[in-house]
Amino acid sequence: MTWTFTDSLPEYRTQAGDFLTAYPAENTVLLTLLHRLEQGRLTGGDPEQAPRHGWWRPSADAPVAGAWLQTPPQGIRLSTMPVRAAVELADLLADEPDVTGVGGGTVEARAFADAWAAHTGATATVHEEQRLYRLGELAVPVAPGRLRPATPDDHELLVPWLADFFEFVGFPGFDAAGIATQRTLAGEFFIWEDEAGRPVSLAGLSQVIVGMTRIGPVYTPPEARGHGYASAVTAGICEVARERGATEVLLYTDLANPTSNSIYQKIGFRPVADSVIINFGQ
After folding, report:
1. What share of the chain is helix, strand, coil (3-state, %, to 5)?
2. Long-range contacts: 87-94, Cβ < 8 Å, 24+?
3. Beta bridge partners of 275
4. Which tens digit of pLDDT belongs to each residue from 99-113?
5. How far is CA 44 from CA 23, 70, 73, in A?
6. CB–CB of 267/231 below 8 Å?
7. CA nearest to 235, candidates 271, 211, 265
8. What H or E segment, with its residue span, contains residue 89?
9. Entry pTM
């Protein structure tokens, strides 16, 4: 078994890119992070701290079979990988002070967290248990209104919506203003308007990478909930995704939220795999 670490994004792409793209659904988060880093669009990380990356081979001459990426201060994100690779990675990073947590497939992330806690004495607390869904046959819900792309004129609306979303999911430190600007200019944010033309729901759609795109965030302000707007905006951007050439439309849900899991399944999403985000503390 062997891990290789690098600070070079081009080297990471060269070594791990084929492996990541071979499993686009399971590695959706890493592919999206890598794409945004290559575009100079770091979201959720500290611009003063360089991203870190690595890849794993079961032997020196074997193909890559695992990878990780971190944009500090966010936790490490794991690709799909053998459990032994996750454990070895935790062993190798045990002296690193910037490892604040881990996310990835449930089995791999828990194996890393258990090894990390054993080495460091840190506590490992589950932040969120998630389920990855893939769109099957789209069922378009009936809701009044229309979908439109977000524009720079929506900035003052999007920032508090995103801040509320990040607060709710437990990431209050994210730069809502910066993310609103970047993703709007990239054509990744869409708004559902009601019949009166009032914005009532927001959804994000990542860039299409090797046929894969991922929906998120999806947010409806409290005063507009209960009218089917979240379903409508999600179904609407599913159609946009397919118009853009996506063959795999993915999204994550919080397993603790039965409402969102039910909504997305009614639209046509089907479970792929479970994942978890784990935070470390002393």
Report:
1. 40, 30, 35
2. 87/111, 87/112, 87/115, 88/1, 88/3, 88/56, 89/3, 89/54, 89/56, 90/115, 90/116, 90/119, 91/115, 91/119, 92/3, 92/5, 94/119, 94/120
3. 105, 130
4. 999 999 999 999 999
5. 24, 11, 8
6. yes
7. 265
8. helix 83-92
9. 0.92
Pairing state between β 2-6 and 52-57: antiparallel
The three-state DSSP-derived secondary structure of 148-210 is EECCHHHHHHHHHHHHHHHHHHCCCCCCHHHHHHHHHHCCCEEEEECCCCCEEEEEEECCCEC
Side-chain-facing half-sphere of 9: CA atoms under 13 Å: 15
Q: Which of 177, 44, 166, 179 is nearest to 100 (CA)?
A: 44
With a CB cutoff of 8 Å and minimum separation 6, the contacts of 231 are: 141, 143, 263, 266, 267
- DSSP character for 56? E
In order of 3, 88, 108, 168, the CA distances from 84 in angstroms are: 11, 6, 9, 34
Query: How far are the Cα atoms of 12, 34, 102, 113, 265 from residue 9, in angstroms, in the given order?
Result: 5, 8, 20, 25, 36
Name the strand (E) or helix (H) holding 2. strand 2-6
Measured on CA atoms in the order 183, 212, 240, 204, is the torsion positive or negative? negative
Which residue carries 């828990």 as its tokens? 110
More confident residue, 73 or 185: 185
Cα 149 to Cα 184: distance, rounded to the nearest angstrom: 8
pLDDT of residue 43: 62
Under 8 Å between Cβ of 43 and 179: yes
Q: What is the largest CA-CA distance in the chain?
A: 62
